[in-house]
Recover the amino acids of this structure.
């Protein structure tokens, strides 16, 4: 009985925490990249959740045609989007319409291998990619499970780890745009085998839920499915 009360309390907290936020579009990387996918360009596809998921796109670009795109474990989830052969300016990006939405924020989870790129910039374009502004310059990416980092390797069986989450709040110029591109761009080149991966890319309107509240919302959804 006590356990049921604690779960119910957690669910109630999560719903309350999310009440004032709107998820415009989110990519949980719910499906795997086809095996042996290589090439300079890769399009993963549309968001799998959010009020404006229709018409959205997650994609990536590498200068090297030998780049391999894959889906190793995510941050406490089955899949992430990963790639190797990183050069300066190579990127992951999402495009989304924010028409009808204000106070736009971006969150995503990111990690790397030991030889993967460790320094990135986050850029934004509202004119179809003709021009970009820098939202976050030269931030560091944690290697999951590295000794002394206080983190564990990403695993589908593991718990969600907030240490890997990057959040950019109240982005100027991102509201009420027919198309916004958010680009996660490498600032360094690395060995060909070095990988970098992303997971849980979310575009919000309004206050952003704390990562713990997002995890509890997942629990609430699971509990609801079990009741049905």
């Amino acid at each position: 009985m006590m356990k049921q009360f604690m779960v119910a309390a957690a669910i109630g907290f999560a719903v309350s925490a999310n009440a004032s936020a709107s998820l415009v579009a989110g990519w949980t990387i719910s499906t795997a990249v086809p095996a042996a996918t290589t090439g300079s360009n890769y399009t993963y596809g549309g968001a799998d959740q959010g009020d404006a998921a229709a018409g959205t796109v997650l994609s990536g670009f590498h200068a090297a045609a030998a780049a391999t795109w894959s889906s190793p474990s995510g941050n406490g989830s089955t899949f992430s989007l990963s790639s190797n052969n990183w050069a300066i300016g190579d990127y992951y990006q999402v495009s989304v319409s924010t028409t009808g939405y204000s106070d736009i924020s971006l969150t995503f989870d990111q990690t790397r291998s030991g030889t993967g790129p460790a320094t990135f910039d986050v850029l934004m374009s509202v004119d179809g990619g003709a021009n970009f502004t820098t939202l976050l310059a030269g931030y560091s990416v944690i290697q999951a499970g590295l000794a002394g980092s206080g983190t564990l390797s990403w695993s589908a069986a593991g718990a969600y780890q907030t240490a890997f989450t990057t959040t950019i709040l109240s982005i100027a110029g991102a509201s009420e745009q027919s198309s916004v591109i958010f680009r996660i761009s490498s600032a360094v080149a690395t060995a060909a085998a070095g990988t970098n991966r992303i997971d849980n890319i979310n575009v919000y309107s309004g206050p952003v839920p704390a990562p713990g509240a997002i995890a509890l919302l997942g629990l609430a959804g699971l509990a609801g499915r079990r009741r049905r």
